[in-house]
Design brief:
With 203 residues, this protein is of the alpha+beta class. It is 26% helix and 28% strand. The chain contains 1 helix and 12 strands, in the order E-E-H-E-E-E-E-E-E-E-E-E-E. The longest helix is centred in the N-terminal third of the chain and has 52 residues. It is elongated.
Length: 203
Amino acid sequence: MKTLFKKQKFYSSKNSLWIFPIPKNRRISNDSDSRGFSLIELIVVMALIGIISLIAAPTLSTMLSNYRIKNAANELAAAIQLARTTAISRNANCVVEILTGSPQSVVVFVDDGANGSGTAKNWVKETNEETIYRINLKDYPTVSIDKAIFTNTGATTKCGFNSRGLSIRTGSFYGSGSVTLKNTAGKIFTVNVSEGGGISITT
C-alpha cells in the first residue's frame, strides 16, 4: 500500500489496477434524468387536446347521424318487406302505417278484421288486429320522417300488400309511393314501394 496524498489513499490489487474512491460530493442515481411535467407543459397539452376535440367533434357527429339514418332506412325497408311476406303467408291484407306526429313511428298490422271482431281491408288498425312490427323513430336520434306520400291507397301515409304480394289496389290502380327520412346533417334516404310490390332505397 502506498500513500500518494495525505488525505487520499489509493490501493493496488494483485493485478496492479488502481481503485479510486468515490468523491463524497457526488450522488449516484439510476433515475437522474426522470422528472415530472411542468405546469406549462400540462397546460399546453390540455390546450392541444381541446383544439383537436373541437375540430373532430362535428365530423364525428355527422358520421354518427349518417350511420343512424342508414340503419333507420334499412329497418323501414325490412318492415315493409315483412308486411309483404306476411300478407302472402296469411292470405290477408297487411298494412304499413307511417305516423308522422309526435312521437314518430311506423306500425305494420294485419288488416284481416281479427276473425270477425272488426272490419277487414278497411286500412284501419282495429283493437284486435295484430301488430306484427313497430319502429319508434326515437330509437334513431337526429333522424326523422320528413314525408310519406302514397297514392291509390287508404291514406297518403299508408301502403299495403294483398295476398299476392302486390300493393293493395284502390279503384283501378295499384298503390305506390315512398317514405323520406332526413337527419340533422341534411342526409336523405327514401324508401320506395312500387305498384308491383317492389321495395328499394334511394339516397
